[in-house]
Amino acid sequence: MRLDPRTKLFMVFVVSAIVMMSATTTFLWVVRIGVTMVPIVLLISEKHYASAFRFLVLYGVALALLFGLLSEKSEGLLSALLLGYCSIVVQFLPAMITAWYVVRTTKIGEFVSAMQRMHIPDGITISLAVVMRFFPTIREEYASIRDAMKMRGVMLGGGNAAKMIEFRMIPLLFSCVNIGDELSAAAITRGLGGKVKRTSATELAMRAPDWLMVAAFTAAAVVFVVCKYVL
Amino acid sequence: MTEPLIEIANVSWRYKGSTADSLSDVSLTVPAGETLLLCGSSGSGKTSVIRLINGLIPHYYNGDFRGSVTVAGRNIAETELTDLAGTVGTVFQNPRSQFFSVDTDGEIVFGPENVGLPPEEIRRRKKQVTEEMHLSELLDRSLFELSGGEKQRIACASVAALLPEIILLDEPSSNLDWMAMENLREIIQLWKQQGKTVIVSEHRLWYLAGIIDRVLYLKKGKIAGEWSGVDFAKLSEEELQAMALRPTVADRKYAELFRDDPAENDETASPAEEAAEEDSIVLREYYFSYKKKPYIFRKHRFSEADGENLNLCIPKLVLPRGRVIAVVGRNGTGKSTFLRCLCGLEKDCTGVIEADGETYRGRKRIGFSYMVMQDVNHQLFTDSVEAEVLLSMKEKDSKRCLRILSRLGILPYKDVHPMALSGGQKQRVAIASAIAAGAELLLFDEPTSGLDYAHMVKVGKMLRELADSGSTVLVSTHDPELIALCCDTELVIRHGRAFYRAVPEIDANKN
After folding, report:
1. Does position B252 have pLDDT exceeding 60, yes or no?
2. Domains of chain B (ranges plus CATH)?
3. HSE of B411 in the Cβ direction (CA atoms, 13 Å)?
4. How many angstroms separate the CA atoms of A87 and B497, rounded?
5. pTM
6. Which residue of B85, B214, B317, B369 could cross-link A191, Cys pair, CB 3.0 to 4.6 Å?
7. Mutate which of A53, A111, A152, A170 to disrupt the B interface (most B C-beta within 10 Å)?
């Protein structure tokens, strides 16, 4: 099932809001866990089995530990560490999973198109698209620099922390600046930044699943706000 | 005669910060529908001419511009760059830096989206170029997982999707193998048939034979020669070499070097383990696969039993010392995997190197062998050439450092920042640090891609010298000229398996 990028952005927004509010009653916990399961199911539906499984296990284990093993009476360093760790995971992982789902399943074309439909200025949209495109480039460049360092045996910078960073950053900056320069020349020759309004080949439409998802997430947000601040 | 499509009149151009003119008083006209080749050594102004026509000069690059350029009736100096998008399309040298998207579909429609075409029209054009260029199997893929040749095909498609009258190609074959170059030739032929005006700037000339209408030779920013395509093909090898140009014909013997199946029906091919073993470096049990098997307690060790799953399968390989060995094979058959495993960059490859009765395993292999990467910028870390070489030495010995520098002819630059050097000089600095680290096995990953004839000859001579002074050199390459120039023997990699083959005698003036 493919969701509209706008729905996805809305989901990220709602989940981020929910993780900032702590669940105090069983009912709220159920809503929270329900909201977390949605992106996991969506990841499975988009065939990202491995990451869905990993998130599920991580979240499940943290939940089980938090409710099964730890209580107010727990003592000792290990319990304290575990409690801290599990609370953080349970509290913030839902937002991580949703963000992961959105990044992994949205093509840049769709994203740009969604931004245009929301009347975000081209300047902002294009900058964000370039950032997304640059991550894999930086990863590739960084990998070859690491290889070069391994071959030279300077991974640890001769024991000098400043050198360690210098050896990585200087070649990386050099190549990224060069790539960026060539990239913008290439983009301009293909008409980027012209006076004409950009169009998009991907036409987006909010379909039934989108509205369903928007409704469900709105409901979850309302439940949290009402239970925490109104009642 | 009708109005020429492109008219460059008395143009001089100097890049900002440069002391010499890149172009001085260049005039040329191109009629519609012509296929024009620009050739000449690096720095002769080929790229500047391309940039004049697509408007990057004077709009994107800063400098001193005189003269006038008219393209399709428009004065370039007064035209916005983005308004030229539907008229002039450019395929650049490096596919890595001309992509705007992450996926292939997004890249093809990027241009049409920019000029604001309606969505139906964009999809129609995408379908059209996909069919014309046979790209259907490349759609919906990540650009970062494509091979160099596939990337260049997508780059061509994304330019063609704007339906420009004029298509410029700036050294498009630099990162391509033999097969991909054939493919590029087909694409240029297609454009020619569609009546487009095509201008190619190129060092490798043989793949363009027969499809070029006119040739311009540039030297030091001036047009120094002009031929029809037919006359150009008749130039002798000596005449070409005098102009520092690479051969115009892919000699049948050259083609021989890249033939695909050396093993079955070739008497000169021999299994890799049969070479004489004395005074040589022996590699054993080099197995590697990119598909990692999941493991819990013990890591799976690759072995011959993994059979077809292996990306590299070399039970034993004998490398004769003091030779230059060309590593050839199509893109994606395991050449770079082989080099990476050989110098110990792939940890999961557990092969060993035996030399002089010693056995090098694991991380020790890194000290024994050293790879000079294609993008040598990644390998330079310090702020002076001397420091760069000293960094590689365990015991800092500045006398030895100076000796190495003078041997490689870069002693005058010992205090210069490596990034301020030219490409060839950077390459030498990387080699100097490899020698300083005591590496006996030097690996080169396509050192001549994108070089002109004169620079290629220089690299060839240097490889030869390295081998003559005792290093063993492995060089992966797609340049038949380089192999003919300096290689003793050829190692063919096919599906991760290695075979030796003698280099056919091509050039009488080999040394």
Report:
1. no
2. 6-250 (3.40.50.300), 261-502 (3.40.50.300)
3. 12
4. 53
5. 0.83
6. B85
7. A152
